[in-house]
Amino acid sequence: MVFAEDSAGEEFIFAMHISIGVLLAMLLLARIAARALIKPPELPEGFTALDKRMAHAGHLALYILPAVIITLGWAETDFGGHGVTLFGIPMPKLFPTMDTWMGIKLEDFTSENHEILAWTLLAVVVLHVAAAVKHRMAGHDVLYRMGIGKK
Ligand code: HEM
User: Fold this and answer.
1) pLDDT digits (tens, 9 = 90+) for 17-32
2) Pocket of ligand 1 (CB under 6 A)
3) DSSP 8-state assignment for residue 84
4) Which DSSP string do the residues of 36-47 spell out, in sequence order?
5) How far apart are CA 15 and CA 67, in angstroms?
6) Which residues pair with 85 in a beta bridge?
7) How far apart are CA 86 and CA 147, in angstroms?
């Protein structure tokens, strides 16, 4: 870490991280609502059955992973009794302040899994971009489905 532990700089970075995470939570909820209301276009012709299964699994992961990461981050902050804030505005306390549950150290558990899943999400995003480039090079135009360019 660039800043010393418990320094003002570290506190600032954490507050920014949590606020941006809360903004992402709001965007994710808006995205889920839009996805439920608006049917996405079909996958392009030329996709094999395996391509379609991989695409659907990848898209599902891009919803589930951020939702779980954000929930774990929120839980860790609440378990520690710190309180989640959005640029200084207090957000609802979704989890109680508590140390352990059934012998599990809650802050350690949420912190470790938050980090592991954040790296997993990064890997899924990289694979997603690589798959989009691969399909584009194979002549399957997938970018218009993301609102980029025209069909
Ligand atoms: C998709 C959104 C998010 C991503 C990708 C993400 C990713 C990360 C990463 C990579 C770390 C560093 C882990 C480490 O080195 O220890 C971290 C730490 C942390 N995040 Fe998030 N985060 C997100 C959202 C949130 C939210 C919404 C909250 C709280 C409401 C939050 C709370 C925390 C806390 C408290 C830590 C410190 C963990 C520790 O070291 O104990 N995060 N996050």
Assistant:
1) 999 999 999 999 999 9
2) 17-18, 21-22, 24-25, 66, 69-70, 73-74, 76-77, 84, 111, 114-115, 118, 121
3) -
4) HHSPPPPPPTT-
5) 19
6) 90
7) 29
